Amino acid sequence: MEKTVNQKAWFLVLPVLVLVxxxxxxxxxxxxxxxxxxxxxxxxxxxxxxxxxDELLHSDRMWNALGRQxxxxxxxxxxxxxxxxxxxxxMPKKGFWASFCLVLMSLPLxxxxxxxxxxxxxxxxxxxxxxxxxxxxxxxxxxxxQGFIAAWTTLIVxxxxxxxxxxxxxxYAGLQSIPDAYYQAAKIDQASRWAVFRYIExxxxxxxxxxxILLRFMDSFMIYTEPFVVTGGGPGNATTFLSIDLVKMALGxxxxxxxxxxxxxxxxxxxLISWVFYTVMVNLEKRDGV
Length: 290
Hints:
With 290 residues, the chain is mostly helical. The chain has helices spanning 10-35, 51-57, 60-90, 96-106, 113-123, 130-137, 148-176, 180-188, 193-204, 206-221, 225-230, 242-252, 256-288, and strands at residues 37-39, 45-47.
């Protein structure tokens, strides 16, 4: 018996396809068009081919910004993933305090990015900020607008405060899905706490952790609002990440051709690394028989 196929269902998806076309495909094609042209104003464009891509690939500016971005994302992942797992392991499993901790951990995620940047900009100021004033009173030279280390430390601590909750909540959800039978068997075998984590909890939450790592990588690699509000890319170019450099090129210098080529290369880097994370995640799920 042949299965009946109803192609009318595609009409239900049509509005979504139209929306995606206007919000993603058409702007992307516009960027591709700009990336191979040059303009001198008056809406006059001239064919440039791959000139902008070649210029960017041989530009120290882009490679330096990419290096800063990679270092920032690596530091963020190295801190937030273990810290999030630690928090999740120590959160209550049931009762009122479990609900209380879940709400408390969700609060930083509800704050808009520009508000987070403003909070930490004021918080770190030496004259009126609690953190800056306290460190200055302790004799610690802290000024995120002038010091390289202070600027990076402020951005890293700010991001850890803002987004560790996401990793913790995802890890907590993974831990809650582990059947009690595993813990009962470990108790019978008198397994240590480390053994329970190493051989039961960690393998069971690997898939969730890969999702958390993927999300945090994409967010940290595309970060713009918080560092722009707090440091503006300074001091000098110390915190000028790819996103900030792209905005400076497009809106500050109004170099539409190079900015379009820059944005495409930026997009491809994110897509490539995200694909690597996704491939690893799928292979881990296949290995575990999920």
